[in-house]
Design brief:
Layout: H1 9-16, E1 22-26, H2 32-45, E2 54-58, H3 61-75, E3 83-86, H4 87-98, E4 109-111, H5 113-127, H6 136-148, H7 153-159, H8 164-182, E5 185-187, H9 188-201, H10 203-212, E6 215-218, H11 226-236, E7 242-246, H12 261-264, H13 266-269, E8 274-278, H14 286-296, E9 318-324, H15 325-341, E10 350-354, H16 360-370, E11 374-376, H17 386-399, H18 404-410, H19 420-433, H20 437-442, H21 454-470, H22 476-486, H23 489-495, H24 501-521, H25 527-536, E12 550-554, H26 555-558, E13 563-568, H27 579-583, H28 588-601, E14 604-618, E15 621-624, H29 629-632, H30 658-668, H31 676-686, H32 702-725, E16 736-739, E17 743-752, E18 757-763, E19 767-772, H33 773-776, E20 779-780
Parallel strand pairs: 1-7, 1-8, 2-3, 2-6, 4-5, 6-7, 9-14, 10-12, 10-13, 11-12, 13-14
Antiparallel strand pairs: 14-15, 16-17, 16-20, 17-18, 18-19
The structure holds a DNA duplex (15 and 10 nucleotides).
Length: about 775
DNA sequence: CGTACTAGTCTTTTT
DNA sequence: GACTAGTACG
């Protein structure tokens, strides 16, 4: 069958335009992957274009793999020479070949977020940065954003002129880059920045790639940032055969530097661009699309488009509000269990999408109880687990001795009796002689300051040297097993009384299988390329359709996927849209969340269920949230249930459960004499009240119930005493107060915390919040 | 040098 | 609630 006949008119228009710049505005589910793959197939089959000259960039490895598989299906062989990969993998491939031109070794290592933090902490210590004011996280964020915008340390410094704070950051940025350079390491952002740098400094390299990639396609274009745009611009500059596909309504990565202007201004930059809009949706029912359209229409400054389908109206959307997140989770699990039992769906057709990773936990518990197979995507990355990082650090050390972060991580793991003081001495020596940490270890005997401890360093160096000598002769799998054995890694895990030692060992086994799988599937397996693959995988890449499991993931991870049954959970103002964006002064922030909601809704093919809870525990504190504004933006006719109108909550919901109030006071104020908090806490634990702050616990015995009641009495007595005793606050329970951000609210409780008064306020617009009096600066009105 | 405990912070999203 | 950095002690 002709590859073009499979497309609708608009899709065909997009696929046939091979030459020149093309912008495909592809609404959710409009078959953009199909257009891209058929376009590539058409180029090869009908236009006689060499696959070697085609490049396609996707967002995840999974998407890249799927695209390649689909082109394979159509074209048969030849498709393997198409360059299909992610931005990051693309850049690594280029840099492995040419980065020596920028003064790096081609076997550079890639630092993940964890490694970056380690470096940053070190720098903060050295430069005496007050991390109370500028946390390492914040600094890394600023640096990352600078890189996204292609701002070099020098430029950053220039921009900081006159601003002391910024100047400090510039210093840190500079130092951070030089530490990375010394370690022969690049962070995620550097991968792209350095490639752009390479292209700019070495026109011959750029030209060689321009001559190779005559036709370039970019998927998920709305999520590209400034550096990525620059990279593409450079590559496409000579031939101008650039086809980008995206949907401005699905731009959800602003926090990562994505620049929505890239897609909105494409026609300005490429004035001769052909623009094609794909609005026919092949995925969802009309009800789902109507809901999505209604929600997204509340955003301003978007490219006008409306999805339609010739599928029927379908079922109405389901909406349910629950008393607690606990009930919510239970309902969802029951619902899925019921449907699957009746044979209406399979587990793998169901997905639960949420705003934050933390929401997965409750659901997970319920799935375990119900015995339903599930998979949580994202959260803590497999390769970020401690035991895995340790072993990878061994591999990295063997591969690149200049990777200080890796060396320092394992030099005393498992314990070799090497302490912090010794390591600091080694570091001093390394810095002084301008050598790597590992090199300093090798010269340990010459470091006068460490004395006897040098003896302990020798075996480590010997071990690494021994492994290195083995690398050319053994398989990766053998090397890893050797490391585990010679270091007694598993043995020392078993010996430790750590609770999760067992699961850690299981993880190590999984790492071994991953190494085996890598060696089997790769033509020329090398240590460096394995480490590279590991560094660039996203959790979503691992998901395969053959697993019959319910999928749990964030809305972000869900982009590009589809399921017949979708559950959007935690639809609450304060959670989704998040509290941060509601309180932000920039309305664009809520718009980004709305796009996220749009992405979520459009994942559903037939059934969409939206749920929320009146009460939910967030970061150990119970919060009471109203139904999400996004739910209210869906026309009521599309929903099977009414949205509660109550903007202010009914009185029957306590602000804080009596139990919690008691606990709080109990913990905060000593009433057993001077031993204060400590004795109160101990008592608390003895009575079995240390777990679960919701009021749902059951009493083990009459005595326990008695002491619990006594606690409440005692607690409220104390709370009262403090309320009328202290006049410093200027307000008391029942007063109306004003908050700078949340506006007006009624004080529901004041509790004397260890260092400050903790005030609970029910705000007219923002709901119930707990805050510290000193910080909140509430004014009685 | 290593461990055990405490206090403080935190997350919204990720290649 | 969970994780981490910092501290006191053996």
């Amino acid at each position: 069958m002709n590859v073009i006949d499979m497309l609708n008119e608009k899709q065909r228009e997009a696929a046939l335009q091979i030459e020149g710049p093309v912008l495909i505005l592809a609404g959710a589910g409009s078959g953009k992957t199909r257009v891209l793959t058929n376009r590539a197939a058409y180029m090869i089959q009908k236009k006689g274009i060499n696959p070697w000259n085609i490049m396609a960039i996707t967002f995840t490895n999974k998407a890249a793999g799927e695209m390649r598989a689909r082109i394979d299906d159509i074209v048969g062989n030849g498709s393997e020479s198409i360059w299909v990969s992610t931005f990051h993998s693309t850049c690594v491939r280029i840099l492995r070949r040419y980065i020596d031109r920028l003064g790096f070794d081609t076997n550079f290592t890639i630092y993940d977020t964890d490694d970056q933090k380690t470096v940053m902490k070190e720098i903060c210590k050295r430069l005496q940065i007050d991390t109370k004011q500028l946390s390492d996280r914040k600094l890394l964020n600023m640096i990352s954003h600078a890189k996204d915008e292609l701002i070099s340390p020098t430029e950053f410094e220039l921009n900081a002129m006159g601003d002391y704070g910024k100047k400090r950051v510039a210093e840190v940025y500079k130092e951070y880059q030089s530490v990375l350079r010394r370690s022969n390491a690049l962070d995620f952002d550097d991968l792209i920045v350095k490639t752009v740098e390479l292209f700019k400094q070495c026109p011959d390299v750029l030209e060689s790639y321009q001559n190779r990639f005559l036709y370039i396609m970019v998927d998920e274009y709305q999520d590209t940032n400034t550096v990525q745009f620059e990279l593409i611009r450079l590559l496409a500059a000579k031939n101008r055969n650039l086809c980008v596909v995206g949907d401005d309504d699905q731009s959800i990565y602003k926090f990562r530097g994505a620049n929505i202007r890239n897609i909105l201004d494409f026609e300005k930059i490429y004035a001769d661009a052909k623009v094609v809009k794909l609005e026919q949706n092949y995925r969802s029912t009309q009800s789902v699309l109507d809901a999505a359209n209604a929600v997204i229409s509340n955003n301003r400054g978007r490219k006008d488009k409306a999805l339609w389908t010739d599928k029927g109206l379908g079922e109405r959307l389901h909406f349910k509000q629950f008393e607690s997140a606990y009930d919510e989770a239970e309902f969802i699990v029951d619902d899925i269990a019921g449907k699957c039992r009746k044979g209406l769906v399979e587990y793998k057709d169901c997905a639960i999408l949420y705003r934050t990773n933390a929401q997965a936990r409750l659901l997970e518990e319920k799935f375990i109880i119900a015995g339903i197979p599930y998979d949580v995507v994202g959260g803590t990355n497999f390769y970020a687990r401690r035991e895995i990082k340790d072993l990878l650090a061994y591999l990295k050390t063997i591969d690149n001795g200049r990777d200080d972060v890796a060396v320092r991580r394992i030099v005393n793991v498992p314990k070799r009796g090497i302490g912090a003081t010794t390591l600091n001495r080694v570091q001093e020596y390394a810095t002084e002689h301008e050598i790597s940490f590992y090199e300093a270890l090798r010269q340990a005997e010459q470091i006068s300051t460490i004395g006897r401890s040098a003896v302990k360093l020798q075996p480590f160096v010997n071990l690494i040297q021994m492994f290195r000598s083995k690398v050319p002769h053994v398989k990766l799998q053998e090397l890893l097993n050797d490391i585990i054995e010679k270091t007694d890694y598993i043995a020392s895990l078993e010996a430790s009384d750590e609770e999760d030692a067992k699961s850690r060992i299981e993880n190590i086994d999984e790492l071994i299988s991953k190494v085996v799988a890598y060696e089997e599937s790769t033509e020329e397996p090398t240590l460096s390329s394995f480490l590279e693959e590991v560094a660039l995988v996203a959790d979503i890449d691992r998901i395969s359709e053959s697993d019959n499991k319910v999928l749990l993931m964030t809305l972000h991870s869900a982009k590009g996927l589809e399921f017949s049954h979708v559950y959007l959970v935690g639809m609450e103002d304060g959670l989704f849209p998040s509290y941060m964006t509601i309180t932000a002064e920039d309305p664009m922030e809520v718009e980004e969340e709305r796009r996220l909601c749009y992405v979520g809704i459009t994942r559903a093919k037939e059934y969409l269920t939206l749920t929320c809870a009146k009460q939910r525990m967030i970061r150990g504190e119970t919060q009471y949230n109203a139904v999400s504004r996004f739910v209210r933006e869906i026309p009521t006719a599309l929903l099977d249930a009414k949205i509660p109108v109550s903007k202010t909550r009914p009185d029957d919901i306590p602000d804080v459960t009596t139990y919690q109030e008691a606990r709080r006071t109990f913990r905060a104020k000593p009433f057993y004499g001077e031993t204060a908090t400590k004795s109160a806490m101990t008592e608390d634990k003895q009575n079995g009240f240390s777990r679960g702050a919701t009021g749902s616990r059951t009493y083990g015995s009459a005595e326990e119930a008695m002491s619990f009641a006594a606690m409440i009495r005692k607690g409220s007595e104390i709370a009262e005493k403090h309320n009328d005793g202290e006049g410093g606050l200027g307000y008391e329970v029942g007063d109306t107060v004003n908050h700078i951000k949340f506006g007006k609210g009624i004080v529901k409780g004041i509790v004397n915390g260890s260092r400050d008064y903790e005030v609970t306020v029910d705000f007219t617009n923002a709901g119930v919040k707990k805050m510290f009096a000193n910080f909140a600066k509430l004014k009685k009105v």
